[in-house]
Amino acid sequence: MLIETFDNHYYDEDNIEVGKPMNCNVVVNHTVVLTEEEKAEARQKAVQKAQDEAYAKMRQPVKKSTKETAVNHMPNLFDL
Predict the structure, then answer these.
(1) Can you tell me the distance from the alpha carbon of 70 to that of 80, in angstroms, rounded to the nearest whole number?
(2) Distance of alpha carbon 57 from alpha carbon 54, whole angstroms
(3) What is the pTM of this model?
(4) For residue 48, which of 58, 59, 37, 56 has the smallest C-alpha distance?
(5) Alpha-carbon gap, residue 75 to 11, rounded angstroms
(6) What one-character-per-residue DSSP string does 14-60 give?
(7) CA torsion 64→70→73→78, rounded to 10°?
(8) What is the pLDDT of residues 32-60, one digit of tens each?
(9) Is a pLDDT exceeding 60 seen at residue 7?
(10) Are 26 and 34 in contact (CB under 8 A)?
(11) Is residue 10 a contact partner of residue 16, using CB atoms and an 8 Å limit?
């Protein structure tokens, strides 16, 4: 209810001052425990993703820089 009231108040007025940042910390008091099977599955997915990315990178055509292209297409006396 308080948040809803604040949101309406914020949008209704044009000259609301925002206070200075708060110095605070967030503490999470639980841990995630994975089974060995879940760890192996996550590891397998990570390896597969890395392989897919490497394969996709290898399949991309090699782009020549514009400087090399310009030098290769300039006519010279030996081409005539």
Answers:
(1) 18
(2) 5
(3) 0.41
(4) 56
(5) 67
(6) S-PPPPPPP-------------HHHHHHHHHHHHHHHHHHHHHHHHS
(7) -120
(8) 889 999 999 999 999 999 999 999 999 98
(9) no
(10) no
(11) yes
pLDDT of 70 reads: 54
Q: What angle do CA 12, 17, 22 make, to 5 degrees?
A: 120
Q: Which two tokens stand for residue 37?
A: 């099977």
| 43: nearest Cα among 35, 53, 32, 31 | 35
Q: Amino acid identity, residue 68?
A: E
Q: What's the token pair of residue 31?
A: 């841990």
d(CA 16, CA 9): 9
